[in-house]
Amino acid sequence: MAEQGSTPPRSGRPPTASRRDESRGTGRRSWDEQLGADEEYPPWAGPGVTPRRANQSAGQRREEARPATGSHAAPAAWQDADTDRPGWAAEPGPGSRSRKAAARSRRRSRITWVWGVAALVVVVIVAGVLFLMGRHEAAPDSIPGFVTTYQRGEFKTVPSACTAVTSATLNQYLPGKRRVVAPRSLDGNAQSLCNWTLDAPPVYRVLSVTAQAYAPSGLATGTGSATFAAIDAYQQALARMRHPLRTTHLPVATVTPLHSVGTAGFVALQIVQARGLATDLETVVARDHNVVVTVVLQGPHSRSGRYHAAQQAELQSGAIAAASDVVARLP
Q1: Would you list the DSSP string of 239-293?
Q2: pLDDT (0 to 100) of residue 86
């Protein structure tokens, strides 16, 4: 029974006998009193275990460690202050183990919940992508008359541009020792590119030829056939000549229809001025069914007189001849 005038414990749990004696003798509050009723003990704080203070003597520590007579407190962690046994050697009590187990359970629950939400988000994203892909693939079948295969007269491949242009054409419009470069195709046998350069002052010529066979596409107009895809590409090329992009710094072209090559075609002339060097660009775009052939023949000429200007009619004739050679070699 507590003495009259003594401060009752703040916790609902009575302190141990040794701590009750200490609080009376030294005026300090016991460890249980310092901790709130809802606060957890440190992992090493089993029943009967009390922390050492730097200002306590060995005798005081032995006195505190000795259980009170008649008490049922568990053996203290420090049986003798002069021994080498560490202070954390005491076994945690049942209350400490239950609190640690509950904390571990809460951590596992939080981790499981977080991973569960993450997995759900991934599943939703994948399901959405598959749903959109399914809709994209199923769209052509839902349109009556939509074409998904090559039609009669359409081409799956194009001839090699480097061999399709004849030697006669090259010798006439690029006479001399030419350098040939064949850029790598980005569409397999459905695309072919080749460039020729002639640098023999006062003549400088560059001939670029591209042949592209288009496939049926859900993005094409009309029935989505390969021919409609080529028509769309042809119209875009024509629009770029009439309305060049600002990033190209090219002037508006003078466009003339071309009826002698393929199903449809045009010729465009652009004159580019830059740092005392003028370049005449003669472009021919011809379409035959689902194949679009693009030929650019350019003739730079300088004010210094090192390179002479080419006749625009000559450049146009050379570009048309190269386009005719490629169209004639379509399989």
Answers
A1: HHHHS--GGGTPPPPEEEEE-SSSSEEEEEEEEEEETTEEEEEEEEEEEETTEEE
A2: 47
Ranges under pLDDT 70 in the chain: 1-97, 103-145
pLDDT reported for residue 154: 96
pLDDT of residue 93: 57
Q: pLDDT tens digits, residue range 288-305?
A: 999 999 999 999 888 888
The string of DSSP codes covering 98-146 is: HHHHHHHHHHHHHHHHHHHHHHHHHHHHHHHHHHHHHHHHHTGGGSTT-
pLDDT value for 248: 87
Token code pair at residue 83: 């021994």
Q: How many beta carbons lie within 10 A of that of residue 42, not counting itself?
A: 13
Token pair, residue 55, equals: 């200002």
Longest dimension (CA), the chain: 125
Helices and strands, number each (H, E), in the chain:
8, 7
- What Cα–Cα distance (Å) separates residue 8 from each residue in 5, 11, 178? 9, 9, 108
As a whole number of Å, the end-to-end CA separation of the chain is: 112
The predicted structure's pLDDT at residue 82:
44
pLDDT at 106: 66
- Token look-up 């090192």 returns 306
At 22, phi and psi to the nearest 5?
-65, -45
pLDDT reported for residue 275: 79
Contact of 211 with 192, CB cutoff 8 Å: yes
Could you give the CA distance from residue 255 to residue 244 in angstroms, rounded to a whole number? Answer: 13
pLDDT score at 130: 47
Which amino acid makes up residue 29?
A: R
Give the model's pLDDT for residue 274: 82
Sign of CA dihedral 154, 230, 266, 286: negative
DSSP code of residue 94:
H
Contact 325, 173 (CB under 8 A): no
Number of neighbouring beta carbons within 10 Å of residue 133: 10
